[in-house]
Input
Amino acid sequence: MRMVMRMQSHRASRGVSFVNLVQQLVYLPAVVLSSIGASASITVRASSLSSEAAAASVRMSQSEPPPPPPMAKKVEHKMEMFGDVRVDNYYWLRDDSRSNPDILSYLQQENAYTQFLMSGTKKFEDELYAEIRGRIKEDDISAPERKGPYYYYQRTLKGKEYVQHCRRLIPNCEAEAPLSVYDTMPTGPDAPPEHVILDENIKAQHHDYYSIAAFKVSPNNKLVAYAEDTKGNEIYTIHVIDAETGAPVGLPLVDATSYLEWAGDEALVYITMDETLRPDKAWLHKLGTEQSSDSCLYHEKDDIDHLVVYEREEGLPKVTIYHLPDVGQPLKSLHGGQAVNFLDPAYSVDRSESEFSSGILRFSYSSMKTPPSVYDYDLKTGISVLKKIETVLGGFEASNYVTERKWASAPDRTQIPISIVYRKDLIKLDGSDPLLLYGYGSYEVCIDPSFKASRLSLLNHGFIYAIAHIRGGGEMGRQWYENGKLLKKKNTFTDFIACAEYLIEKKYCSKARLCIDGRSAGGLLIGAVLNMRPDLFKAAVAGVPFVDVLTTMLDPTIPLTTSEWEEWGDPRKEEFYFYMKSYSPVDNVKAQNYPNILVTAGLNDPRVMYSEPAKFVAKLRDMKTDKNIIMFKCELGAGHFSKSGRFEKLQEDAFIYTFIMKALDMVPAQGSGLN
Output
């Protein structure tokens, strides 16, 4: 068993940023910072495009043959560096304003074509969505957390997309008692009434997209500050309200990131970005003053690394409690800690914000067959108490499912972990089972094997689900990440292929039953392996994929590009240029057979511009030699994380699962579909 202490680098990217340094500056508890980006709101207007694709937007009956796919027009655009000339015929698809009528028309035609192809199984998709939604306990609350004289929690209501942020006063007889793992919020008729601080459903009424990324209560429990995004572009507005009345306090803070913290009861710390959307400045805002008069606490002129220590063993997270020496005593190497043990062979553990001065550690545990379970751990006694487990309806029984941890051998003989789950009474393990393999492998991000209720619909249809923990991620420590970035990035792709070949060799599936999935930098993975080994896969899903790597990394005016050079390299240097070109998916599409492919994008996406997946699809359609289907679905009112409502996200899962099952001939086609 190998123990790894991981020193993680955080930066603004398709990953995260410099918040840890700011926390040290203002002595604040840990929070998670989502990186941000920019976009623009648009008015969608119809326009003609010189392409046969217009036919796709015409309403058709299911008895008519499928329309031809949209074929984007070609406009030659030459780019030269180091004597190497590249021609990008689809460069015209990029529009930073998101308002070009020809481009919007093309995206609408792609959506219409996708809608037509999926229309034959819309009934199945709707039934699948109802099945997925039927597992969700729509009216529920999160595990209450005690803070001062209140319990704070979130409530979901039946039929509502968003949460309510609530609190309940602690009875006087309990308010002075110290925090305990046995604390329980009273809910009976004699309990203090529930107070709704903020209802996201009301706030979201006039927006296509709505997200609150931070919700912070002031130390005296009188005020609440929250970061709000109404476009999906991850540029936040920070509001402060009275916790009791909901009345606004002062003017909003605009053009901020999702990070905020209270600095006392009358001031906030927040972060803004530079022109490339890299978080770079921490500000102190005093309530009642203008934002223009805020004090800059820190300006990070260089995108440096900041250290955060995590502990992992064999690629799995570990929770270990250490007792530090008394104040004034030397700090020695930590040893002899008390480990918190977990039963599943593959699992996920997430930390939760806790009262800094308390002796209670709150964490959430789940596995691919165990729903999220919130525990309070007493640091003195070592007692762990389950506070809440997510309710899964629809007759779910964890004992019906099996989780496994396997290891595939990469070309350089590195052992790559794979997490697997399936329903034991539906699987034959003779090569005939359908399998969906997921991968990411970038930014030192750990894709831990956690629970997802909607995934049960795949498992209950006889699927095996697997996660390839490939290099470039952080599952196996810092070196694991280093060996999958910069000039070693191709290890990410060959690791994934090795995992696919292992699953085929061990008869978890066959080439004809293997589907793959990845998002964002994971979409780069999907694009790369499709170019390298398209014969291995029956279908692929590339969600908001980062596929035009070289062109994007050569343009420092694109948001996040300069901060991304530490991940991919700076292609203004010849060595990085040609290495990046050798795997960038758009640059490596060639005349060969490809499997069925679904590509998604968000028009307002600040991390992966919609034009990257659009160009990838256009070039695939132009060059591929097969008759398989390529579908492109672009959300015109969403960003990198797609739609914001909880049920809307379930609809997306149902859509993707239906596409995958159609590709495997597991649902009947009714007038349209995949070959």
Remarks:
- Confidence is low (pLDDT under 50) at residues 1-63, 303-310, 327-335, 671-675.
- The two ends are 47 Å apart (CA to CA).
- The first strand starts at residue 3 and ends at 9.
- Residues 661 and 667 are 6 Å apart (CA to CA).
